[in-house]
Amino acid sequence: MPKGHGGQTCAEAIGASFAPGEVVSWSELSRRVKKLGSWVDETIWQNQMSLIVNLPPAHHHWANSRPFLFLRGDGQYEIYDERKHPKAIEGSSSQPNHVPQRAGSVGG
Fold first, then answer.
1. Which one, of 108, 90, 94, 106, lies nearest residue 12 by Cα?
2. Which residues, 6 or more positions from 38, have their beta carbon under 8 angstroms from its beta carbon?
3. How many CB atoms lie within 10 A of CB 42?
4. Residue ranges of the domains in the chain?
5. Angle, in degrees to the nearest 10, between helices 41-50 and 26-36
6. What's the pTM?
7. Burial of 74 (0-12, 13-18, 19+ CB in 10 A)
8. Helix, strand, coil abundance in the chain, percent, nearest 5
9. pLDDT digit string (tens) for 67-90?
10. Does residue 55 contact residue 46 with C-beta atoms inside 8 Å?
11. What is the secondary structure of 2-22 as a DSSP string?
């Protein structure tokens, strides 16, 4: 699988695309991730789905993924925070993970 310009995975680039507490649309997230590597929309989309804490079918399809994104009711995304968001659904094969370390802010 291709790596980003800094050697990170697509999942790591997704995590690095958020500032603390930031809410981001799919189009903005995709734009930011593309700045970090040469991934195509399908790759970004598949990785993003695998990283959503509150998308139970994804936990079975991507059983080895470590989710850290929260999909809001308005269709935007933010980093999952167990103090703020509902608990992950019991019995899922993946538990929420912490966001990969950020190399630097991509937002702006």
1. 106
2. 2
3. 8
4. 10-79
5. 110
6. 0.76
7. exposed
8. 30, 5, 60
9. 899 999 999 999 998 888 877 655
10. no
11. ---TTS--HHHHHHHT--TT-
